[in-house]
Amino acid sequence: MWIALGIILVIILILVVMYNGLVAMRNRVDEAWSDIDVQLKRRHDLIPNLVETVKGYATHEQETFTKVIEARNMAMQAQSGGAPEAVAQAENMLSGTLKSLFALSENYPQLRANENFMRLQDELSDTENKIQASRRFYNGMVRDYNTKTQTVPTNVMAKMFGFTDRTFFELDSEEERKNVSVQF
Q1: Considering Cα of 128, then 173, then 54, then 114, what sign does the dihedral take?
Q2: Mean pLDDT along residues 30-43
Q3: What CATH number has the domain bearing residue 49?
Q4: pLDDT tier at 55, thresholds 50, 70, 90
Q5: 31 lies in some domain
């Protein structure tokens, strides 16, 4: 009888450890997603300042400004929804419009020399690097979490308690994987 009780306690202990491991991994994935949110918020806050700085030099480029602001607004809406696929798609679109904004500076040498523009561009570049690092960290956490929810024996526990796989934060198209060439 004591042996059976000991075996039951060991099984319960193993189940508790597996469940707690799944909860910890899920929380790490959520934390990693939160890091991406913070960097995207910073990016969204920088963009209007950058657009206003460029507007002073390139007033007839209204279509570019409108596209950047529209893409920013779409990215902010997607971010409030929280689905990684929608956020990734909107953020990738925003990245494309930002490239066209920076390309404008090629036509305006006085803009390239503007200290405010250069500072904003450096801050945005730093933010882009932080977004990339946050994406890598998030994707690593998703990989580890998905592996844990898909492998035996934790997959049984994951199904019982509703732990579902998470999606990676990825680029949408091959076009976005190409190297960007912006010359100043």
Answers
A1: positive
A2: 91
A3: 1.20.1440.20
A4: confident
A5: yes
CB hemisphere CA count around 38 (13 angstroms): 10
Angstrom distances, CA of residue 103 to CA of 6, 9, 107, 122, 171? 70, 66, 8, 15, 22
Q: What is the pLDDT of residues 63-122, one digit of tens each?
A: 777 888 888 888 888 888 778 888 888 888 888 888 887 777 777 777 666 777 788 888
Total number of domains in the chain? 1
Domain with 135 in it? 2-174
Per the domain annotation, does 184 fall within a domain? no
- CA distance linking residue 130 with residue 73, whole number of Å: 21
Q: Is the peptide bond before 153 cis (omega within 30 degrees of 0)?
A: yes
Note whether residue 182 is domain-resident.
Answer: no
The whole-angstrom separation of Cα 119 and Cα 160 is 52
Tokens at 131, concatenated: 């977004």
